[in-house]
Each structure stands twice: as C-alpha cells, then as structure tokens.
Design goal:
2 domains; 95 residues; 57% helix; alpha+beta; two-stranded antiparallel ribbon
C-alpha cells in the first residue's frame, strides 16, 4: 500500500509544483504528511469493501476463478468475479 500512497503524493506534488513556488510545494508536503494516515485508512476501507463484494459472489466448492473484473463508472466501481461453474469440487474443477 505504501507504493500507492507514495505514488498519489508524487502525482499531486507534481501538479502543485507546476502551479506554485517552493513555499507552496513545502506546504503541500506538510499537508500530505498530515493526511497520509487518513488516506491509508480509506484505502484499507476500499480493499475491505472489495473483499466483501468478492466473498458475497463465492459459491464455495463450485467455482473455478477465471478473473476478477473491475469496472469504473465515474467515481463508482463494480467488482465481479468471472468464473466457470462445474459440479466438481473446486480442486478438481477445470475449464
């Protein structure tokens, strides 16, 4: 998760640097450090929601997972598991 948080901070720092002087950039760095814990918690919340969404789609013992499909609709997202169902146990289920 650290990789993603650092990437977000670099992206915004680049925009801030293009718009302001060194004082503005330094203010942004202080602000970014202050909001980082909140950002981290929000990303954990997002991942938890995604896990719950996927868990609700599981049909234990009857699904072979092919892929996870993430669709973005503006600011909303939809996560679906794309799978092949069969009557065998999950360890023996084949395409």
């Amino acid at each position: 998760m650290e990789l993603h948080i650092d990437a977000i901070k670099r992206d915004v720092a680049g925009v801030v640097a293009a718009l302001g002087d060194e004082d503005v950039v330094e203010q942004w760095r202080r602000l970014a450090d202050a909001v980082e814990p909140s950002l981290r918690l929000r990303l954990i919340d997002l991942l938890s929601e995604a896990a719950l969404s996927l868990n609700s789609q599981l049909d234990i013992g009857h699904v072979a997972l092919d892929r996870i499909d993430v669709q973005l609709h503006g600011c909303q997202y939809d996560i679906k598991m794309m799978s092949v169902k069969c009557g065998l146990s999950s360890s023996r289920c084949q395409r």
